């Protein structure tokens, strides 16, 4: 049987993961059975939420199994099909496919992508889970109204950059927070944010209040920690805080401590809500119909950081935790 | 001009207030002008939220002014009327009346109470702001479904006791947390909670998980701090947390610290929302229509702690912060 390369999850990390948790194996590629497809990976997605799947125990997605393949979003070409709806040459996307150079999967694990609408890799980003995460979190929890101020942390990331651009499209003031001068420039000059702040420079509180003269109505939080504390202090009455991620302490080994915001949330009637995009599958079509025309018209730009070569997957994933990516981090096979 | 007694706000407290912030003065009672009423106070409400009004600066209710009367909910008898809608002898209720033995106020500051439905003092509690707070917070933010588990902190208080009884009426499991064996007994034996926990005994986590075998779907939080941390650890996926009050640190002089729950809120898709009953005035009629028949039928019981004598108001208010009240704390003139 043909052998293909696989990125194997070698060991559960404690704290910040390093290269020792990955192993490259050769595994057999079974022939497709009835209802199955054989795929050749084109683009692989690495995402911050994968850190949670490296821990044992209950979470919203089952944990990765040690000695099995890691898995994530993949855009792939169909190389053999035993399902009448797919032909060799079709380009498909699956949100939970194994990290193998080629793979045999049930046809139900993938959907065809419309390459006429956008480059195929966009289905791992702005037209995939990250774009939909931005759309659902901002619209359903943030409920933006024209003229309001939307602050986004992790703003140069795959989700954050789309949040800011949707906010601008809806007539809001968009203010992004990111971790370098280069990212801050990208936010205002490329993504069109009204203002952007480098949280690694001193005076975050002052710069936030200068950038948000009317306070903050929506805080779309990808980061958590002290950056979030600074934004919380500026929240207006009736502010909404979609909690999308907390990457600043994904690698923490104990629950971190910080200010208890609950009293302030009472005083200001603030709403805070965690959400997981998997639970909004019935809304994906609506989200893609909202996003696709804006992407096609250039109103929502997608920034990708692309690493070349299947074997770069571990490095690309680890790079997320040191802020190496601008926009969506992708590995091209 | 006739003189009446007034409880004056003598000085802003730092931290836990004591008797030195109050002063009893004699002030003139003006004759009512066109559109005004003269009232004689019958029952005065003391409420935890008043602590916030003792601080300077912006909050959801304007701060008390030093050397002016304190104010709060009062049930009073009309002694003179220059408004055709009111007659001497009518019993009225106003949420923000001055703490005076008699007072002259605009007729628009009060509403008549229906004494056939419930004793007049109930309009300071279960049919007033505290009952409506329980109703709105539980229904609008908690969104209870039959079979779910509702945990209430400050459960023996004026709001908490009503939350638990509404939850029971809707077919939920109601679990109360309070600070003494006496209150715990009151919760299960009088108010009909399914279980109640004394947070001053050791093993809060264990006793919570025993009392909530299916986890916690709604946590109605009046208290905050470490009691809330224990409940947060038991929250189910998609749990809702109405934040009504945080009395455990109303007297704190710095923002207290505690676990950062945001990461957990993402993982479990948890919603947390602060609210202020003043912002729901358009729903008060609906709330009273829901509560009044249940009160009349004895399905929602009201517990009052009544102090006798107008001059007991300062002591009654201070008593809230040491847990002296069971149910609604009221002063009878």
Largest β-sheet summary of chain A: 7 strands, mixed
CATH architecture annotation name of the largest domain in chain A: Alpha-Beta Complex
Radius of gyration of chain A: 20 Å
What is the assigned CATH homologous superfamily of the largest domain in chain A?
Answer: Medium-chain alcohol dehydrogenases, catalytic domain
The share of residues in extended strands of chain A comes to 25-35%
Secondary structure tally, helices of chain A: 9
User: In terms of quaternary structure, what is this?
Assistant: homodimer
The CATH class of the largest domain in chain A is Alpha Beta
Given helix and strand content, the structural type of chain A is: alpha/beta
Give the helix proportion of chain A (percent range): 10-25%
Principal-axis shape of chain A equals globular
InterPro entries (chains A, B): ADH-like_C (IPR013149), ADH_N_2 (IPR041694), ER (IPR020843), GroES-like_sf (IPR011032), MDR_fam (IPR045010), NAD(P)-bd_dom_sf (IPR036291)
Protein name (chains A, B): NADP-dependent oxidoreductase
Keywords (chains A, B): Oxidoreductase
Pfam families (chains A, B): ADH_N_2, ADH_zinc_N
Can you characterise this structure?
2 copies of one chain form a homodimer. In chain A, 25% of the residues lie in helices and 29% in strands. In chain A, helix 9 links the parallel strand 15 and strand 16. Chain A has helices at residues 50-53, 129-142, 158-169, 181-190, 204-211, 225-232, 262-267, 284-296, 313-319; strands at 3-9, 22-28, 36-45, 71-81, 91-98, 102-106, 111-112, 149-153, 173-178, 195-198, 216-220, 235-243, 257-259, 271-274, 304-308, 328-332. The first copy, chain A, is of the alpha/beta class and 333 residues long. In chain A, the strands form 3 sheets. In chain A, strands 3, 4, 5, 6, 7, 15 and 16 form a 7-stranded mixed β-sheet that branches. In chain A, helix 2 packs across helix 3 (158-169) and helix 2 (129-142) packs across helix 8. The interface between A and B is large, with 36 and 36 residues. Chains A, B: Keywords: Oxidoreductase. Chains A, B: This is NADP-dependent oxidoreductase.
